[in-house]
Amino acid sequence: MQESYVDLRGHRRRAGRGTLIAVLRALGAPVEGPGDVLDALRERREELARRLVEPVTPVWVGRPARVALTPPPRRPVRRVGCRLEHEDGSVRTWRVDVSSLRPAGRTVELDLLDPLPPGYHRLEVELGRRSATTLVICAPPRVADPLPPRCWGVFAPVHALHRTRSWGVGDLSDLGELLASVGELGGDLVGTLPLYAAFLGEPVEPSPYSPVSRLFWNELFLDVEALPEVRSSPQAQRLLGSASFGRGLERLRSGGLVDHGAVIELKRRVMTPAALALLAGPSTRRDALEAFGREHPRLQDYARFRAAGERWGRDWRAWPGPPRDGRLEAADVDPELVAYHRYVQWAAEDQFASLSRSGRDRLYLDLPLGVHPDGYDVWRERDAFALGVSAGAPPDDFFPGGQDWGAPPPAPDGIREQGYRYQIECIRHAMRHAGAIRVDHVMGLHRLYWVPQGFPADRGAYVRYRPQEWYAIFALESHRSGAAVVGEDLGTVPPGVRAALRRHGVLRSHVLQMEADPDRTPPLPDPPVRSLASLNTHDMPPFSAFWRGIDIDQRAAQGVLSEAEAEAERARRGRIRDSVTAYLLAEGRLPAGHVDEGAILSGCLAALAASPARAVMVSLEDLWGETRAQNMPGVPGYPSWRRRTAHPLGVAFGMPEVADRLRLVGTLRRDAASPRRMPRTARRA
Length: 685
Fold this sequence. Notes:
By secondary structure, the chain is α/β, with parallel strands linked by helices. Among the domains are: 62-139, Immunoglobulin-like; 148-187 and 508-685, no CATH class. The chain contains 23 helices and 22 strands. The strands form 5 sheets. An 8-stranded parallel sheet has the order 19-16-13-12-11-22-21-20. Helix 17 (512-515) links the parallel strand 20 (508-511) and strand 21. Helix 9 packs across helix 11, helix 14 (421-431) packs parallel to helix 15 and helix 21 (597-609) packs parallel to helix 23. The chain starts with a strand and ends in a 12-residue tail after the last helix. 44% of the residues are buried.
């Protein structure tokens, strides 16, 4: 835990006494007040001193594999016994004289002798009557790098997509159509928001960054009419053909906002009989579902959890004793609800597999930082989470009061004692169908800002993690899956994070709206070579709203900005407009005498596309001048995560402002990748 930190303005901020006590309790320290702190610290130091080895040890392929061993200070032991179990189950044992080991401070270095293969291995050491085990993660030093040089892609939230036959929300077939449309224009990636399981009953939780689980998909995004069980179910077909059902669909299709609860109600009415019919008799599809359950042992547990939530309510802390404590039996829940939740997860995996077959290497998926505190992951893996606190962000210019995201952060000791079991599962699930993943708030691999429950968000404190262990896992899993890794490093970024991202091959984020600075020359700096560059993110206003300052007016109207703050923002935005326009004209990115908003947008996209950035992502909605944001953090009453795109997919890609701008991006990306036409900006690493 850090007692203080340096904010974005370079000021040191110290955590208050109450914050420190609350965070220490969340870390498991036996403290009730300041008088307990010294004793707790002494106990902790003694506990760490008794460790023979750390719970986890990262080592790197091609480098010496060594484990730090702490011999007991008293009763010295002459020899240490070693048993190394490789991931493949093979075992090697040996003994070594302690006096021959290389000293390293209080520890000695135990050499694992033969080069280790990449993987998760377990080393058990014995010194006299004591023994301990460490998980040895042997990983490549850098994550996989499968992306084409100077690649580009399009970002769009799945929930916002629609076609004429959509059910009031985008689905995985819409995502497939987007993949095809971008691919036809030569694009390499399609990015979207997290697609994980969500609370869809009242109260609906629409935020994709507060999922029920990071191990299961959101059935809201299933293309119901593409399911074989729906097509073959007489009951489902009668529902689909009924006039009342059709009227309900039309209401959902006609609105500009996604009604998550109403959509899932209609989809469940169709998918439930399909699921039950599948289980009624033997079939190839039923055999496939059972095989999926055997391959994913958590599936039955998750389905029971969701069924239990429908029986006793969302908050598992209020459930009866055994279920609350993680013991759910078949008799506790409705078997039909369990069957439904098993079925929709299998169906989602099936539709994702179909996407993978046509464009797996082009899917850019998002791994959120946290999960909903009432969700499955916290219920089942509570030792992996710190309870009584939330992850968040300290005060900055955009959020002067700080942020409390409501998600319990990872418990530093808990995840290590588990050998990162749960985190590895989450990363594998994210990479299973992706060519690249975005790691939300990548600074969380190094440290996280914890906000104690009942405290305002500006009274949090930072807690440190073991970044080398995280990077080893991401590197190993990315090589096994073939997925690239992008880190979202926006906000308060501590020293060393971006150097670590470069060292381990993780792309960082470069966002033009955040980087534009009228007091810098040039006002639009070149993105780093090892970055994914974009105009904005899902948490920011679309380009047109940014350029016009609409977002400032919205925040001022909601009281997020005072009038004085809003005026200062408007003045700075005006200076950004002037300096960026002059820069684009000087660079030849604007036609002379033609500096309207559309030309500025094309010029900014051209500047990013011609840059040395490894990847460039373009928000689909920016291309037609959308001014409404998908999410406005901190603005109460705004329909975040619910807005549908202004144009259906088929119409959007037929619009010249969409297709022509994407062709321009593709052309400039190809030119930037050519060694014969390397842009001047490529010299910046």
